[in-house]
Design brief:
Elements: H1 2-10, E1 27-30, E2 34-38, E3 47-49, E4 56-59, E5 66-70, H2 71-75, E6 87-90, E7 94-102, H3 108-128, E8 137-145, H4 154-167
Parallel strand pairs: 7-8
Antiparallel strand pairs: 1-5, 2-3, 2-4, 5-6, 6-7
Length: 171
């Protein structure tokens, strides 16, 4: 149902002429128990990998079919100032908005702020295009590639609560 709505409202890849993707469609279905999402940061969309370099691990223990939607640099047009997250992952029960940030430059807090804006803008974009998300459990994920783990601080917890209140989506 959500796949049909995405295709009807947003269409297909907007970058077919310049994309280097092996899988040209923004909608990639996978039923692996374990797979990874890699954001190459080379003006190409995210891709699914089974090994090698990646920023996000997807643990699909029930091996249900998951649709990975390449939103940035693929499904959603590049419009000056329009923000969008890197990808969306969903099955018949859950939908995840995912923004991947590199831990190399800038401050962690600034990367999180930008990621939150991109996630919120994508949620708004889907809703403003009439895509009904109400029958799915929604979650937004900020993935920062970093070698050290940090315990969420009070300000981060406040940010997560505000995001939930504004978009009705857990961050």
């Amino acid at each position: 149902m959500i796949l049909k709505a995405l295709k009807e409202k947003l269409g297909d890849c907007k970058f077919t002429g310049i994309s280097l993707c092996e899988h040209k469609s923004p909608y990639h279905h996978i039923a692996e128990k374990l797979f990874y999402i890699h954001d190459a940061e080379n003006n190409q969309p995210v891709k699914i990998v089974l090994s090698g370099d990646y920023q996000l691990t997807v643990n699909n223990q029930l091996t249900t079919e998951i649709c990975v939607v390449k939103t940035d640099k693929c499904l959603i047009k590049e419009v000056e100032g329009q923000k969008k997250c890197d990808c969306i992952l969903f099955n018949n029960r859950r939908l995840y908005f995912v923004e991947i940030k590199s831990g190399r430059t800038g401050k962690r807090g600034e990367r999180k702020r930008k990621a939150k804006e991109q996630l919120g803008a994508t949620i708004d974009n889907l809703r403003s295009n009439g895509i009904n998300l109400s029958n799915l459990e929604l979650q937004a994920i900020i993935c920062i590639k970093n070698h050290s783990r940090k315990i969420p601080q009070v300000t981060e917890q406040t940010m997560m609560e505000k995001f939930r209140e504004q978009y009705n989506v857990k961050l």
